[in-house]
Design brief:
alpha/beta; Nitrilase/N-carbamoyl-D-aminoacid amidohydrolase; 2 domains; 17 helices
């Protein structure tokens, strides 16, 4: 049987850097053609020329000219055909396009995405906001093969799939930058397996990989034959090239199949990749964070050290009167275990200075959360000063549970340029901490940090449980209200305590103003604050 060699380039484009992305495409395609002379096509991800999501960059006046110049450069310098994604502007209308670029001949065929809703949520990419829908199928020849093109959510377009089946395509080539959602790693695989089995055509899937602001592109490109069997599979999150050898009627030769991590391992890998790419892309010299001796900062430190290397991470313990000896001991122990630079900077002096400045204004008032928040804000000032001086990004340590209900201090512990745990529920913070401790020969997070009741240590005897429901209940309410769109009555009917449900929902609704001022972080659940859940600050319902 005669096979056609197709290379899937699971890459990470620099958003907006069209010329850099063009050179990456040329270098990748030509080098692999030189190594593999029988190579017939190299496939790059959706929107590989511009990067994704580009949001309002798609409205720039110079976009069309820069994209056309990039396509011309590809045609002039390529030695092998490529299929590549880019925005196509026709008569003022923007389409999500894939173009088949032939060396010296330019774009020979184009395909515009048809469908923007249905089987898959948009996951914060906002395709439907910027792109108009195409209407025509695209079939091209690859040796003796007939190949049909799909883009984004077009696999849910039954009429289009029927057309390709009637046209007897041998393979469907699907490009879509698949956004990681914890627990859904194999959802697209299973969907495209069913389509392959249904149509009798094999399916090649190409996705970008790596972090882009609040999103983590899953990668995990793969090929399934016409019987729905995986014959090639790339790793999650990492830039990678995957060779597929395909034949008529969905037949294929099995090549490399990478095993994917699951559950805690997959989520931890996504967080680490998000931190690594955010720091590198934005030109920081590393990261620093306030290490409190609590579970959230402990996990954030572990993720940062694993992502960036311990030599590029700095941990600061900023004790006050209510900071326990246990917290200081555990923070120092973790930093030493992970080989991270560590120091203590007490905040009593700046706190007293602020209290002295405010003394006249506070006369006749009782101590309340004002003094507690002032402690957190002293810490925020210190972290940002070190960030400015050292060129390291501050990692905020809030989790999704706290972010949801506003259990954090504006301009205090919310300070930061990136928040790795922003979309990770508290119960999963514990799961990830335990999982990380099971990796390698020794635990990196002290067991006392995991076992002790969570506390902000801003007042004597303060515990999270004094202000919030138990975290399993809180996380369940947040999940149902934020991710599943259930109302209070529905959640209560599911067996959750009515008082807790209504209290949590009130807190979620009233703290939108805090969330919109917090550090961005990677979306890892089906609906993350800011990434694909957007509410007005001021509203009633």
């Amino acid at each position: 049987m005669s096979y056609s060699a197709v290379l899937i380039s699971q890459s990470r484009s620099k958003v907006g850097a069209i010329e850099d992305n063009v050179q990456h495409i040329i270098t990748t395609a030509n080098s692999h053609k030189q190594q593999c002379p029988e190579l017939e096509l190299v496939v790059f991800p959706e929107q590989a020329l511009l990067g994704m999501p580009a949001f309002d960059l798609l409205l720039r006046d110079s976009l069309c000219e820069r994209i056309n110049n990039g396509l011309n450069t590809l045609s002039e310098q390529l030695t092998v055909p490529v299929l590549v994604g880019y925005p196509k502007i026709k008569q003022g209308i923007c389409f999500n396009a894939l173009g088949l670029v032939q060396p010296s001949l330019g774009v020979q065929q184009e395909y515009y995405q048809h469908q923007f809703e249905g089987a898959a949520a948009d996951q914060g990419v906002a395709r439907q906001v910027y792109f108009a829908a195409g209407q025509q199928e695209t079939i091209f020849s690859l040796g003796s093969l007939r190949v049909g093109v799909l883009l984004g959510q077009d696999y849910a377009n039954e009429a289009l799939l029927t057309t390709y089946q009637e046209q007897e395509v041998d393979w469907l080539l699907h490009c879509s930058n698949n956004v990681f959602t914890s627990g859904d790693e194999t959802q697209l695989v299973n969907t495209l397996k069913k389509i392959a089995h249904q149509t009798g055509a094999g399916v090649l899937h190409c996705s970008a990989a790596g972090g882009q602001d609040t999103l983590v592109m899953q990668g995990g490109s793969f090929a399934v034959n016409g019987e729905g069997e995986i014959v090639a599979q790339a790793p999650l999150f990492h830039v990678h090239t995957m060779l597929a050898k395909i034949a008529p009627q969905g037949q294929a030769m099995q090549t490399a199949i990478e095993e994917w991590p699951v559950a805690e391992a997959a989520l931890y890998g996504a967080l680490a990749q998000a931190v690594k790419d955010y720091v590198a892309t934005n030109g920081f010299r590393g990261a620093l964070l306030g290490l409190s001796g609590g579970i959230d900062s402990a996990l954030t430190l572990a993720v940062a050290a694993d992502a960036l290397g311990p030599e590029n991470v700095r941990a600061i313990m900023m004790p006050f009167d209510y900071t326990s000896a246990m917290s200081k001991e555990d923070a120092a122990q973790q930093a030493a275990t992970m080989g991270v630079a560590y120091e203590e900077i007490p905040i009593r002096t700046p706190f007293d200075s602020f209290m002295g400045l405010l003394a006249n204004n506070f006369t006749g008032t009782e101590k309340d959360t004002t003094e507690e928040n002032l402690q957190a804000r002293c810490r925020g000032v210190i972290l940002m000063a070190l960030s400015n001086k050292l060129g390291k990004v501050v990692l905020a340590c809030s989790n999704k549970s706290e972010t949801a209900v506003g259990y954090s201090t504006l301009y205090g512990d919310m300070v930061g340029g990136f928040c790795p745990l922003r979309d990770v529920p508290k119960t999963w913070v514990y799961r990830l901490a335990r999982w990380r401790n099971e990796q390698g020969e020794k635990a990196v997070i002290p067991q006392r940090v995991i076992d002790r009741p969570p506390t902000a240590e801003l007042a004597p005897g303060q515990l999270d449980q004094n202000s919030l429901p138990d975290y399993p209940i809180l996380d369940e309410v947040v999940h149902r209200y934020v991710e599943l769109h259930e109302d209070a009555d529905t959640i209560i009917a599911a067996g959750l305590p009515a008082e807790d449900v209504r209290s949590v929902i009130r807190l979620i609704d009233r703290n939108e103003y805090k969330r919109q001022q917090g550090a961005l972080g990677p979306k890892v659940t089906s609906r993350g604050f800011g990434a694909n859940r957007r509410y007005p600050v001021t509203y009633s319902w």
